[in-house]
Design a protein that fits this description.
binds ligand 0O2, single chain, 5 strands, alpha+beta, Beta Polymerase, domain 2
């Protein structure tokens, strides 16, 4: 297929992603404007690349003429929540909307994948207006906690690196990290109940944890794997102790380490 034709096909998906990001961000604003806690923490989106579409079509033996019907994640939205409970609130919000129709749902939180992957997936249809008129598209919405996203991002990049030959020791570490992430989500859920009374202090703690997770996630791209594993273990140990001052100090130290790597990469 010619590049121009791919562009014509994929453009409406880019429009759908842009529109949906704006709409979900607006939900965050609506909550915050009335001083309420938003179940959505962050929204991102992407259109699948041509090479991923070709790869998936080949893997699933999909005729190129039918890829728009058969590949339901050409447009992908990812919604990040702080707590597992928030995920189900977001699912409800999506089910109730009149501008998207849910056609499929997969709850990989109740039914955890063998890999340890946890997330809630919804396939919705969504209309965009183009010069040729209305076009109905499928969009995949993945809803996860910050912790689930942290694990899935790292596992995805390791899957990409090793293809189907992931070394057993890495697989085992990922599996035990998935267990730790599950405990982290459960602990955060306990914190959530208390937070309704002490929302401020909680927001601070969640933000520190989010900063730490983002820093660790970024360090995976640039730092030595052993060093990052150690940082991750230290984080879980400090997190489990529950001392917010120590967590904040750890976050500060991690900022310094990240800044050092950034400075090194600029040399
Ligand atoms: P990419 O590169 O993220 O786009 P489907 O692929 O939807 O036709 P499947 O596999 O039953 O069929 O769908 P599923 O399980 O809902 O997976 C869809 C997407 O969820 C994947 O897209 C991944 O993004 C994510 N996902 C599913 N399982 C895993 C997992 O074990 N680990 C990680 N990290 N992500 C997972 P793609 O197209 O596979 O990949």
């Amino acid at each position: 297929m010619e590049i121009q034709l791919w562009r014509e096909i994929l453009d409406p998906y880019a429009l759908a992603v842009d529109e949906l990001i704006i709409k979900f961000n607006h939900i965050i604003d609506e909550y915050r404007h009335v001083g309420a806690y938003s179940p959505i923490e962050q929204v991102t989106g992407r259109v699948k690349t041509i090479s991923s579409i070709l790869e998936k079509s080949q893997k699933k033996k999909i005729e190129l003429a039918k890829f728009e019907d058969e590949i339901d994640d050409i447009a992908g939205i990812r919604i990040i929540c702080q707590f597992v409970e928030d995920i189900y609130k977001v699912v409800d919000i999506i089910r109730r909307r009149s501008d998207m129709r849910v056609v499929n749902e997969k709850d990989y939180i109740e039914n955890v994948k063998k890999s340890g992957y946890r997330s809630y997936h919804m396939i919705v249809t969504y209309d965009v207006e183009t010069l040729k008129g209305k076009k109905e598209l499928q969009v995949e919405i993945q809803i996860r906690t910050l912790a689930m996203n942290f694990w899935a991002t790292i596992e995805h990049s390791l899957q990409y690196k090793y293809k189907s030959n992931m070394p057993e020791n890495i697989r085992e570490r990922l599996s035990s990290a998935a267990g730790a992430i599950l405990i982290l989500d459960q602990e955060m859920s306990v914190v959530r109940d208390e937070i309704m009374d002490a929302q401020n202090s909680f927001t601070i703690k969640a933000n520190i944890v989010a900063d730490i997770l983002t820093n660790i996630q970024n360090l995976y791209k640039v730092a030595n794997k052993q060093e990052v594993m150690k940082i991750q273990d230290d984080f879980l140990r400090i997190y489990q102790k529950g001392d917010q001052t120590e967590l904040a100090e750890f976050s500060h130290q991690l900022d310094l380490i990240s800044a050092r790597y950034r400075a090194q990469s600029l040399r």
